[in-house]
């Protein structure tokens, strides 16, 4: 059994419609956060957690991504590319891969998320339980702005003042066993198609919940701009109070 997971697929094929006009001439993974493209942060976290080989599943303006990262030598990691001739969706992108390319288990992550997620620990959890897939989840809370009434049989039974809703976010970070490759159909999405079908087949999907690490989806304009604003504040604080030139 593997001690660590050393290969990963990064999904980079989307057109980034929600990030227009930024993505009109630049693929979403190459959008800059500070001085570095989003994808470089993704690759850095993979490397930090023991991944030695990364496959970038690229589509829209994929040649720009390959031109920027090359074979990964400058980043100290091996990078290979899989080009989508047409949009394949999140799960459909895996149809391009053969089992012997990926090993027994591998990670699948999005190319537009910023995170310090502890993939090494998630990988150990996945390998110890041996599910077909492990999904990374982050707990969140949402406070409703209004008091709500509980009604039963047409009569009010109680009130809750601005209740707090707790839920778990699917981070789009997955550890997978190679068996999943034979269970994906062309053009499918993981959450909409593949995972529900696995549950229908009584396949076990393991949850890995972590609220200690940073995770942010920058798939929308407001999220992307907010992240750059936050980084600017961090740099200002570092320069003024810590004497750093960061």
Question: What are the defining features of this structure?
Answer:
single chain; 246 residues; alpha/beta; Spore Coat Polysaccharide Biosynthesis Protein SpsA, Chain A; seven-stranded mixed β-sheet; two-stranded antiparallel ribbon; 30% strand
Please tell me about this protein's structure.
By secondary structure, the chain is of the alpha/beta class. It has one domain (7-137, 170-241): Alpha-Beta Complex (Spore Coat Polysaccharide Biosynthesis Protein SpsA, Chain A). Helices cover 28% and strands 30% of the residues. The protein has seven helices and 13 strands. It has helices at 38-48, 62-69, 89-92, 99-102, 119-129, 190-200, 221-241; strands at residues 7-12, 32-33, 36-37, 53-58, 78-83, 105-110, 113-115, 133-143, 148-152, 155-160, 164-177, 205-209, 215-217. The protein has a seven-stranded mixed β-sheet. A two-stranded antiparallel sheet has the order 2-3. A two-stranded antiparallel sheet has the order 7-13. The longest helix is centred in the last third of the chain and has 21 residues, at 221-241. It is globular. The N and C termini lie far apart (42 Å). The model has no long low-confidence stretch (mean pLDDT 85).
């Amino acid at each position: 059994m593997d001690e660590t997971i050393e290969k990963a697929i990064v999904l980079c094929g989307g057109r980034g419609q929600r990030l227009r006009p930024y993505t009109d001439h630049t693929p979403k993974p190459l959008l800059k956060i500070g001085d570095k493209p989003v994808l470089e942060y993704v690759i850095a976290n993979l490397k930090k957690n023991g991944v030695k080989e990364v496959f970038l599943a690229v589509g829209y303006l994929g040649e720009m991504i390959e031109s920027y990262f090359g074979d990964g030598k400058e980043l100290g990691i091996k990078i290979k590319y899989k080009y989508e001739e047409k949009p394949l969706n999140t799960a459909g992108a895996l149809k391009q891969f053969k089992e012997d390319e990926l090993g027994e288990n591998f990670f699948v992550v999005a190319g537009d998320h910023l995170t310090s997620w502890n993939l090494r620990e998630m990988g150990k959890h996945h390998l110890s339980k041996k599910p077909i897939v492990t999904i990374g989840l982050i707990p969140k809370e949402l406070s409703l702005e209004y008091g709500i009434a509980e009604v039963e049989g047409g009569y009010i039974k109680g009130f809750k003042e601005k209740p707090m809703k707790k839920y778990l976010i699917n981070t789009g970070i997955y550890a997978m066993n190679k068996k999943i490759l034979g269970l994906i159909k062309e053009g499918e999405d993981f959450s909409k198609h593949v995972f529900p079908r696995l549950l229908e087949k009584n396949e076990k999907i393991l949850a890995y919940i972590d609220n200690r690490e940073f995770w942010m989806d920058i798939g929308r304009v407001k999220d992307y701009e907010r992240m750059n604003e936050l980084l600017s504040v961090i740099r200002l604080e570092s320069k003024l109070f810590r004497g750093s030139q960061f």
